[in-house]
Amino acid sequence: MEFSATVIAVTGFLVISFLLSTAVGSTEDFIAVSNLRRKSPTASLCASVIEPSGFPCSEHITHTKDGYVLGLQRVSSSSGAVQPRGPPVLLIHGLFMAGDAWFMDSPNQSLGFILADHGFDVWVGNVRGTRWSHGHVSLSEKDKKFWDWSWQELALYDLGEMIRYIYSVTNSKVFVVGHSQGTIMSLAAFTQPDLVKMVEAAALLCPISYLGHITAQFVLRLVKLHLDEVILAMGIHELNFKSNLGTRIMDIMCDGHVECGDLLTSITGKNCCFNNSRIDSYLEFEPHPTSSKNLHHLFQMIRKGTFAMYDYGMWKNMRYYSQLEPPVFELSSIPSSLPIWMGYGGNDALADVSDVKHTLKELPSKPNLLYLDNYGHIDFLLSVKSKEDVYDSMLAFFSSLGRSSSY
Ligand SMILES: *[C@@H]1O[C@H](CO)[C@@H](O)[C@H](O)[C@H]1NC(C)=O
Ligand SMILES: *[C@@H]1O[C@H](CO)[C@@H](O)[C@H](O)[C@H]1NC(C)=O
């Protein structure tokens, strides 16, 4: 019993590391896993990624209601010209990622750089637990309590605080751009009237609110195995694949035992346009840690097909929510006046087309849609052609709103 639980947990470690992460492209690239061992840069995100490409960048810090200390970066155009800043745009990353995800390729391929060069006042979000956030006012990362949250808190507290902070610094409504888990957070936050009133418009890459139809075979197998619950039962509260244990398990598992290239496909879908030779540099930064509770919440969504708050079980739900089932996030309460753009792909095994359609059916507004038949989950962030294929359409949407003539 103990042994099989360990085997399941070990498998889980491996698999989770690939969930929504950029880690692996094909089998022959897999030696790159040893790069996980390399120490991630300890300098700031500005200093290690953004400034070296010639973009002015400043670090900001803000506190959530529940005491987490978040890092934000503010980036402006590489042209260096002194000009009034354009409208603020907040970039909110996906699971096992952080703000670096928007700057991983060259300045003419990466959305963060592209938006800055189009005159936007670019703000980069980093949720609690990632390496660009700064811990908690009283808890240590070694405390179980530090990891007691899911995307629900990331939406209502982290994203809520980022929007509030940017709104108050810039005195302007904020454009929000999210990828994957960043879109779950965004859609949940937009159901909150006090938050959405500070949002100008949203662009969602691989939009997710419902996860009931994901086709990622490997993820579905883990859901069936109740891996999320096993991990929590074992007292593992932080999922960190850059820890000693995490990298050791990855090395063992991927040393010929598993087709790791196929694994990425069976988790994210077939990515058409991902640059395999850049995996080494992605692995310097990804994956970032998250909480086991967050994984559990995501698996609940897959099992139940709902877009709802964390399910503690009937009795605890009564205590937390005064009802037996967790309250749902009502997409219908997102104001129809909020302009939304969405990019989604036919090969995305996580943001499945039928789940996207479900989301669209419940939204009061009709978002601008970009559908790319051959795009997988990672392509929307890291395709070598994402500028032409995706970001140009997003930029056209933003400028169609006529907020400013500078972009
Ligand atoms: C993108 O920038 C690189 C250099 O950073 C350059 O070699 C390449 O031609 C550029 N590509 C496009 C499409 O502009
Ligand atoms: C793919 O990545 C390699 C290594 O960074 C780079 O030299 C090459 O230009 C990239 N290819 C494209 C199409 O961006």
Automatic annotation (TrEMBL):
Residues 48-105 form the Partial AB-hydrolase lipase domain. It holds the Pfam family Abhydro_lipase. Residues 1-25 form the signal peptide. Gene3D superfamilies: alpha/beta hydrolase. GO terms for molecular function: hydrolase activity, acting on ester bonds. The active site is at S180, D348, H377. SUPFAM superfamilies: alpha/beta-Hydrolases. It comes from the Eukaryota. One of its GO terms (biological process) is lipid catabolic process. Keywords: Glycoprotein, Hydrolase, Lipid degradation, Lipid metabolism, Signal. Belongs to the AB hydrolase superfamily. Lipase family. This is Lipase. It comes from Sesamum indicum (Oriental sesame).
